[in-house]
Amino acid sequence: MAIPNDIIVKDAGILGGTPVFRGTRVPFQALLDYLEAGQALDEFLDDFPTVSRSAAISALELEGAMLAGHLG
User: Fold this and answer.
1) Among 1, 2, 10, 48, which one is least packed by beta carbons within 10 Å?
2) Does the predicted TM-score (pTM) go above 0.70?
3) 52 vs 31, 32, 56, 68, CA distance in Å?
């Protein structure tokens, strides 16, 4: 499953090709790191106001769907 390019993008000119939220320099991995550390989504959104709640949730849903596809 490909990630729609309206949420997460990879561009060699932005953070060396690290997947980031479209229109930002915020890596998707930063969201995963926050959640793994036990921080709430609201804390991430407060610290990275250029990422919308809907973009963060959509990215997590896509990640979950991709993982389920690999397991299933």
Assistant:
1) 2
2) yes
3) 12, 15, 6, 24
